[in-house]
Specification:
- The complex is a heterodimer of chains A (432) and B (259).
- By secondary structure, chain A is α/β, with parallel strands linked by helices.
- Chain A is built from 9 helices and 19 strands.
- Chain A has a 10-stranded mixed beta sheet, with helices on one face. In chain A, strands 3-4-6-8-10-12-14-16-18 form a 9-stranded mixed beta sheet.
- Chain A starts with 7 loop residues before the first helix and ends with a helix.
- With 259 residues, chain B is of the alpha/beta class.
- In chain B, a hairpin with a 2-residue loop joins strand 11 and strand 12 (223-228).
- In chain B, helix 4 packs across helix 5 (148-162) and helix 5 (148-162) runs parallel beside helix 6.
- Chain B starts with a strand and ends with a helix.
- The chains are: A alpha/beta (432), B alpha/beta (259).
- At the A-B interface, helix 7 and helix 8 of A face helix 2, strand 7, helix 3 and strand 8 of B.
Chain lengths: 432, 259
């Protein structure tokens, strides 16, 4: 990590700082994070969290920051539609809010939703906690550059006890041009509030891009969130996301994550169970193919009494692709009565594909139930032969078994139409 | 329809079939009996094309074509069906979906029109009625959580839907109680026709009380050592395989005791 600013990527990202926001604490935070990025640069594979994801190639690239033409990039609103999802929608193209593609005219009672670029012109005090953070950890490089550079994103609040019936769709599109963009999302569900979110990452065109997305999600006492993340970016997209959830007492979050697209994809998914009785359930499938690299870093911290986490993830790698999964569960001192369960099963469809999986369990409390397991294997020969003996051709039999393997973790997604759509996308990704 | 000549096959380097010959014509029901380790299941697996079975000599001709040259799915499309001794559980794949995919894949190869879900459902309902099987099995994943009897009935049900020309039943009677056995036998009898042949591989003659074979063969030491009509099965029942072994040195003398 000598002279990080000499790395082409780091130098190019430091090239054009954001214009002053007029908010002193925000500008100070941006400066601080920018300076930290300039000094620290990119983590190398000696940093544990980046052990299996080398940034050497990406580090040699240069990207211009932001897109002056973001408002005029051709994106057809109808192509962003998802089955089972209608109503409120916020769309960002190359990191900038696009009012023309969004649907925010009639928000249900209790839901407040606006782009960060607008929110910063209003009462910014509620955003201060999230946006004044200084990222100092080694390995936080992309959070630093995001904090320094993101001028737009989602600001979403659900009022206490409000129940939002229709799913809210958040769409992040990378379009056409070779550039870097960053979005910052701040989401909060008030006490006893309920929300269903669908977060979608898509592309138009195949241009090489670097995108960072940082989301903070706060669930107050008894709040309930269903969150679907569908990542189907184009093959040129390098997409680095960090989603951090904090769950207060009795709050519940259920996440379903589908990682299909992108070139180098990294998702840090963190959940802190800070209130008694909080529960988080994560389900995910990552399916790299071609030369894709998809890395999921799941970290769950049990910090209160009687908290529960279940995490079931499946990986399928084909061709020369690489999948990485790290599932780290920490049960902190005093988090007695915690219940944690983590599994990660993986399939390799080609001899050149690779999946590195690492479940980690650290327990510092009493009366804890914890289980974890990970496997990497191939399709079951007996099952393949059974299907073929009935007339199903080999390729179809493999697709059928692989899809079944993945679908198992999406089964409990309550939105049936969306679940079937995700299932169709899974199958479409399989080798013909 | 099926002509097996001097078939030799190895599994994991060990020769199991040692010159097996057999001819089956359309409309016939053949029972293959024999002690454990005689090569009964190997025969079924070789005929259906399972990996890991190496044919070192001999030939299998099916309707004039070299069966051994075909992939398992091509054999199925050509009308060969294997009812498994141990049907495989496949979580996440719905039984109905699986069966329709199988039937349509076969129809596609044969140049027939694929069935849409309504047409398929109609066919399935007919077959369920004939086979006297509850439609509850249809809504579950393939064989997942099925009892032993349900798995075997599901095999026969698949056979009814796929309508093969040559059905090979690998110890379909094993592990069944008498009611399940009768039900499976009734299914097989319903499917008997002048165009269809059956090869029933079995250890016991019990099944043959309900499905009366035209021919009975004794497989021992990797070869057919004796052939006859149904009375041969009754003789085996009375005297065990040891009696056959006495006149055929190829049979290990302790074979009867293993049963």
């Amino acid at each position: 990590m000598n002279q990080p600013a000499s790395l082409p990527l780091v130098a190019s990202l430091l090239d054009a700082p954001l214009p002053p926001s007029g908010i002193a604490w925000l500008d100070a935070a941006r400066q601080e994070n920018r300076a930290a990025f300039a000094i620290g640069g990119l983590p190398d594979t000696r940093v544990e969290a980046w052990k299996y994801t080398a940034l050497r190639g990406l580090g040699q690239r240069r990207f211009t920051q932001g897109d002056a033409a973001a408002q005029t990039r051709a994106v057809e609103a109808s192509t962003l539609a998802l089955p089972g999802v209608s109503g409120v929608r916020l769309v960002f193209v190359n990191g900038a809010f696009r009012a023309d593609l969004s649907a925010v005219d009639s928000l249900p009672a209790g839901l407040s939703l606006q782009p960060l670029s607008q929110a910063l012109r209003g009462d910014v005090e509620p955003l201060r906690f999230a946006l004044s953070r200084h990222y100092r950890d080694i390995g936080d490089a992309f959070a630093q550059i995001n904090a320094a550079s993101a001028g737009d994103g989602v600001v979403l609040r659900v009022a206490a006890h409000a129940r939002i019936d229709q799913p809210v769709q958040l769409v992040f599109v990378g379009a056409e041009a070779e550039l870097a963009w960053h979005v910052r999302n701040v989401i909060e569900l008030g006490e006893g509030a309920e929300l269903s979110l669908v977060e979608q990452h898509a592309s138009r065109g195949d241009a090489a891009q670097l995108a960072t997305v940082v989301s903070d999600i706060e669930l107050r006492d008894g709040a309930q969130l269903h969150h679907v993340m569908l990542q189907d970016a184009a093959a040129g997209t390098n997409l680095i996301r960090r989603s951090s959830l904090r769950l207060h007492a009795r709050a519940q979050a259920a996440l379903h994550v589908l990682e299909l697209g992108g070139a180098l994809v990294r998702h840090d998914l963190r959940a802190e169970l800070i209130g008694d009785g909080a529960r988080v359930h994560t389900r995910g499938v990552f399916m790299p193919h071609g030369r894709q690299h998809i890395d999921t870093q799941l970290a769950i911290r049990h910090q209160a009494l009687d908290t529960t986490s279940t995490s079931h993830w499946r990986g399928v790698a084909n061709d020369r692709a690489r999948g990485v999964f790290r599932g780290a569960i920490v049960v902190a001192p005093g988090a007695d009565g915690s219940d944690a369960n983590l599994t990660n099963k993986n399939l390799l469809l080609s001899p050149s594909a690779e999946i590195d999986t690492k479940p980690e369990l650290e327990i510092y409390a009493d009366e804890v139930q914890a289980a974890h397991g990970a496997t990497v294997g191939q399709l079951d020969e007996r099952s393949l032969f059974y299907l073929r003996s009935r007339g199903i051709p080999l390729a179809e039999a493999r697709a059928l078994l692989t899809a079944a393997f993945c679908r198992a973790v999406l089964d409990d997604l309550p939105n049936v139409a969306l679940r079937e759509h995700l299932s169709t996308l899974l199958v479409a990704q399989l080798p013909a | 329809m099926l002509k097996i000549e001097n078939l030799h096959a190895r599994v994991e380097g060990k020769e199991i079939l040692k010159g097996l010959s057999l001819e089956v014509n359309a409309g016939e029901v053949h029972a293959i009996m024999g002690p454990n380790g005689a090569g009964k299941s190997t025969l079924g697996n070789v005929l259906s094309g399972r990996d890991g079975y190496e044919v070192t000599a001999g030939s299998v001709t099916y309707n004039g074509i070299d069966l051994l040259a075909l992939a398992p799915e091509a054999r199925a499309a050509a009308g060969v069906f294997l009812a498994f001794q141990y049907p495989v559980e496949i979580p996440g794949v719905n039984n109905t979906y699986f069966l329709r995919a199988a039937l349509n894949a076969q129809r596609k190869v044969r140049g027939e029109k694929e069935l849409d879900s309504m047409q398929f459902l109609k066919l399935v309902r007919e077959k369920l009625k004939v086979m006297q099987i509850s439609d509850e099995l249809l809504h579950r994943a393939v064989n997942e959580g099925f009892s032993g009897g349900e798995k075997k009935r599901n095999e026969i049900f698949q056979m009814a839907v796929l309508e093969p020309q040559l059905a090979i039943l690998d110890e379909t009677d094993s592990g069944l109680d008498i009611d399940a056995l009768k039900q499976v036998a009734q299914g097989v009898n319903t499917l008997r026709s002048p165009e269809r042949a059956f090869l029933m591989i079995t250890h016991y003659q019990r099944l043959l009380d309900y499905v009366v074979p035209d021919f009975v063969h004794v497989l021992a030491g990797g070869r057919i050592v004796e052939s006859g009509d149904r009375s041969l099965a009754l003789k085996l029942e009375a005297h065990g395989y040891a009696g056959i072994g006495a006149s055929h040195p190829a049979v290990p003398h302790q074979a009867g005791a293993q049963a």
